[in-house]
Every structure is written in C-alpha cells, then in structure tokens.
Design a protein that fits this description.
Strand order of the largest sheet: 1-5
Largest sheet: 2 strands, antiparallel
Radius of gyration: 19 Å
Number of helices: 7
Low-confidence stretches: 112-116, 271-275
Number of domains: 1
Structural class: mainly alpha
Length: 275
C-alpha cells in the first residue's frame, strides 16, 4: 500500500511526465502493437535504470552525478533513482525513433487517380525500422533533446521540478558535463540494439489493413516537439535566455527539414505499393 501511495503521489507531483508517457504508449501501440511496445519500453527502462544505478556509483556511463533525495517520501524511488527519471528515457527514445522514421521511412505512392496529400504517405513496410541508419538517427535525436532538457533540469530549484540531482564537477555546457551526453548515446544504442534483436523473434505485425503508418509516427513526432517546447518554455520562464536561444538555434535546422518533409518538399525514396 505504501508503494501504491507513493506511485499516486509521483503521478500528482510529475503529471507532465505521465502525460508524455501516456501519449507515447498510445502512439506506440498504434505503430508497432502492444507486444513490441512492451518490449521497447521495458528494455529502454531497464537499460536506463541500470545505467543510472551504475553512474551514481561508478561514473559510468553518464559521468559522476548524484540524486539529492530531496523528494524522498514525496515520489517513488527505486534504490536512489527517482522512478520518473528512468521512465522519461522510454518516451524520449520512442519519440526520437518516430522522428527518425519520419525522415527515413520511404514514402508510398498515392493510389492511381487519388490526389496526393500535403504530407508524405509513409509506407507500412517497417523492415527499414531496424536499419542502422534509423538507429543512428534515433540516437542522434535522443542525445539532441537531452542537450535542451538536462541544463534546465539541473536548474530545477527554480521551477517545479526541484533540485533533484547535481554534478560534483560541473561541465562546460551550462553546467552539464560532456560525459552525460555520451551516456545518453550509450543508453539509446544499447536499448535499440536489444529491441531490434528481440523484435525479429516476435510474430510479424499484421499491417494488411493499413496502407501507411502516418498516424502513429506523426503522433510520436508531435510528442518529441511537445517535450522540446515544454522544456524551452520552462527555460525562458526561469530567465535563462541564452540557454533558451541556444536550444532554439540548435533545433532550427532540424525543424526546417521536418517541415519540408511534412510538406512533401524533400526528395525521398518511394516504397512499393504493397505492405
């Protein structure tokens, strides 16, 4: 009962985390089905938790950092790790995966006689979803969003997150060490490799009733930008203008390319008519 009470308090204390998680689960089950969703999120959460558990004791892979324990008794912890922190890796990696698929998944030709839409019809053949290019771009987007998130989270005492962790040796990037971003790349890479390996052993997805996977992927992309805008808004709200402008400039080229792809203005390989 105490664990359930702490879990309820965690949801109340961190509603934005669980909103993002709910959106990601809804998107994932539409895109890859519940079984693969469970595998993807389970692997990512376990990988993130173990890496955080290791790093707070050995400095590997994120570098040395410590949780303050300031919210012990207010939210659920697993050992010294807040549950919401390791959970956040799951929807951030999934959203990054959707953004990578949006850029790299071949477009499907519109049926003969039908007018092309104002966004690309992404083919439902997801075999490319396990390609090294998708994995690499996913990890890049995963690290990129942490470049925005981590500095503002480090300043949590100035907003409703709270001061939940600290670095004994602050890094050059607004106090965040470069090792932290390397650690995020390690988590993303391990989780994706494990997921790709296990997903091949699951029964194939039944995609016969849908021609495209636009809905699930676009919802995941929307989640990615929702998290990004949330963190940028908090950054400007606490008066960190230089940090906020750095994040905006960092994402400007990505967003331009995203909009061009959305409006069918980028060249892309075409998928076959079949699934």
């Amino acid at each position: 009962m105490e664990v359930l009470a702490l879990l309820a308090h965690t949801v109340v204390l961190r509603p934005y985390v669980f909103l993002f998680l709910a959106v990601s689960l809804f998107s994932a089950q539409r895109l890859i089905g519940w079984r693969r969703t469970g595998v993807f999120f389970g692997i990512t959460w376990v990988t993130a938790f173990l890496c955080e558990f290791s790093s707070t004791r050995t400095g590997i892979p994120f570098g040395w950092y410590y949780y303050t324990g300031s919210t012990v008794g207010q939210e659920l912890y697993l050992s010294n790790i807040p549950l919401m922190d390791s959970l956040s890796f799951t929807f951030l990696l999934y959203a990054s995966y959707c953004l990578a698929l949006f850029f790299l998944l071949p477009a499907r030709r519109a049926p003969e006689g039908a007018r092309a839409g104002w966004w690309p019809l992404l083919g439902s053949d997801l075999t490319i979803a396990r390609a090294w290019s998708v994995g690499g771009l996913t990890v890049l987007f995963f690290v990129l969003i942490d470049i925005v998130i981590d500095p503002v989270a480090l300043r949590g005492d100035r907003w409703f997150l709270g001061q939940i962790y600290w670095y004994p040796e602050p890094g050059f990037y607004f106090g965040v060490p470069i090792a932290n971003f390397i650690g995020w790349a390690v988590v993303g890479l391990i989780a994706l490799l494990a997921y790709f390996s296990l997903a091949q052993r699951l029964p194939p997805l039944d995609l016969s009733r849908r021609a495209t996977v636009n809905g699930g992927i676009l919802l995941g992309c929307g989640l990615y930008y929702g998290v990004l805008l949330f963190n940028l808004a908090v950054t400007f709200w606490i008066g960190e203008r230089l940090l906020g402008l750095t994040g905006v400039l960092l994402y400007l080229p990505v967003t331009v390319l995203f909009l061009l792809r959305l409006l069918n203005r980028l060249p892309a390989a075409e998928a076959s008519q079949g699934t």
